[in-house]
Amino acid sequence: MRKYKFIIKGHDYEVDILNYEHDVVELEVNGTHYSVEVQREVKEKPKTPRLVRTAVPKPSPEESGIAKGPSPKATVKTPLPGTILKILVKAGDEVKKGDTLLIMEAMKMENNIMAEKNGKVTEVRVREGDSVLQDAVLLVLD
């Protein structure tokens, strides 16, 4: 049971809701008993919008920016800052994936720098004894 107080045009009204079943409300206003039928608007449930996407056309070779032609040159970079101890290859040497290219000291440990792919050494950009920073280019493979 709920109780409400209303003031309408300066008059006080005390309303007690006694029972509310389906669309019929039994209430008491200032001691007088009433049975009231409630009318409700039936609202349609809003439909959930559906996202419709159009198919994206495939880009042309010019638009994709992928050039077809000779494979780009690969660079061998240092994983950590350190010092080059020994270079095991020279320009013009053929190397296979996994071959040790040079040895460098980093964090007081000797590290083998290996080829990540097959190729030919086109440039050696460091000398033995050089100090190098992280991601410095050591060699270029073609």
Report on the structure:
This protein has one helix spanning 61-64; strands at residues 2-8, 11-21, 24-29, 32-37, 74-77, 82-87, 94-95, 100-106, 109-114, 119-124, 131-132, 137-141. The strands form 3 sheets. It has a 4-stranded antiparallel beta sheet, with no helix packed on it. With 142 residues, the protein is mainly β. 3% of the residues lie in helices and 48% in strands. The model has no long low-confidence stretch (mean pLDDT 88). The protein has 2 domains: 2-37, no CATH class; 74-141, RNA polymerase II/Efflux pump adaptor protein, barrel-sandwich hybrid domain (OB fold (Dihydrolipoamide Acetyltransferase, E2P), Beta Barrel), CATH 2.40.50. Strand 2 and strand 3 (24-29) form a beta hairpin. It is built from 1 helix and 12 strands, in the order E-E-E-E-H-E-E-E-E-E-E-E-E.
